[in-house]
# Entry
Amino acid sequence: MVMLKKYRFAIVIFAALFLIPLTIGNNTDVHNVIIYMLIYAMAGEAWNLITGFTGQTSFGHAAYFGIGAYTSTVLLEYFHITPWVGMFTGGIIAAALAFVINFKMFRLKGHYFAIATLCVAEILRVLFSKWSYVGAGDGIALTPINTLVEGSSKSAWGKIAWLSLDVRNRIPFLIVTLAVFILVFILCLALEHSKLGFYWKAIRESHEVAESVGVNPRNYKLAAMCISAFLAAVGGTFFAQFFKYIDAETVFPLSVSMIFVLVTVLGGIGNVYGPIIGSAIYYSLELWMRRLTGGSGSGLNLIIFGLLIVLVTCFEPQGIIGVAKRIQSRFTRKKEAGGDGKIETHS
# Structure
């Protein structure tokens, strides 16, 4: 009961994400929005580990997102290996790449580090756009699963095993994506309250103070970056399997990294609930604007979202979660003041 009470907000969010698709019928727009939201919330959780918990601003997480997308796609398309294996393989490659790149790069601080991470993603974008094995500028379009693997995707379990997406019914893919996101969320929550998470927060507040108590900032930042890269690659895998097509301009550009940043900052940086809340607002706004304008107001959702980001960063750096906490504390103070008044009157 204590655990249910403590995490009731998370339970409500996940229950809503599970029940809404089942109750609205075959509404592909809503299904798409929820899938987008979950994929980018995964990547947002990954970015939040290194920036929100550890204090190292990264503008290049699209690099690891893209590695996950390309690895799972290549293994499925060229070698007929299930995307589940591709997901873990891509995560390991992304984590190894993060270790190699950041082993020395963590000597950089502040905006120098942020610019260096951006350059890493840009290098990969150019490399993959010229690499003929992965389709170069044409990218890779996934062949339908039934064509690749005869019979294995006809059953429900077969579809899950191959992350098969039936365009007429997205609910199975949505439920699998939700289940994986819940696992990512639980992992991030456990990391936040672990000894490792406290070390990260100590480094975020002050490198010097952390070192003075025996914490090695570079080692723990490397651990954060490797875990973060792995989780970003998981999001990239689901992105590739959902869209059935990837190219370097789709998964590696700065705009992709910025979505991870913006949804997390809007929801609440440094909080595991931040990415899912920010992502829900961003994609709900996109769906609402698309229906309101009928496609004629393309980009209007970005203007409104940008305005929200400006307002949040100016007046509440902790995002929507910070606003909610402020409102809750105000009601709590009023309630306590009202309770004290009653006690005094009675006496």
